[in-house]
Amino acid sequence: MNKHVQRVEAQLLVSITELKKNPSSAIAAAQHAPVAVLNHNKVAAYLLRPEVYEYLLECHEDLEDIGKAAERRNDPSIRADVDELDTL
């Protein structure tokens, strides 16, 4: 991809200037779909519904956990009795 071309992952766009003039409108639009905030015609941020952001955080945490599990898959294991774990 050309270094002067940027992919925009939203169908709705708002400039920083418009966001400053009418933030409520941009936030309202973001309740229906992601809004890309442009600064000098480049994406500076995205506005998302809180539920979407929280879902993305959960997905990120899940991916981190999967990565940790994959790393530990080949670690040596030890046998332990569940009752013995309470005494540790």
Summarize the structure.
By secondary structure, the chain is α+β, with helices and mostly antiparallel strands.
Explained architecture:
The chain has helices at 16-21, 23-30, 50-72, 82-85; strands spanning 12-15, 35-39, 42-47. Strands 1-2-3 form a three-stranded mixed beta sheet. The protein starts with 11 loop residues before the first strand and ends with a helix. With 88 residues, it is α+β, with helices and mostly antiparallel strands. The chain has a domain at 12-72: 3-Layer(aba) Sandwich (YefM-like fold). The chain is elongated, with a radius of gyration of 22 Å. The protein is built from four helices and three strands.
Envelope shape: elongated
**Spans of 5+ residues with little confidence (pLDDT < 50)?**
none
Estimated helix fraction: 40-55%
CATH superfamily of the domain at 12-72: YefM-like domain
Write the element-wise H/E pattern from the N-terminal end onward. EHHEEHH
Our estimate of the beta-strand percent is: 15-25%
Mean pLDDT: 88
Per DSSP E runs of 2 or more residues, the count of β-strands stands at 3
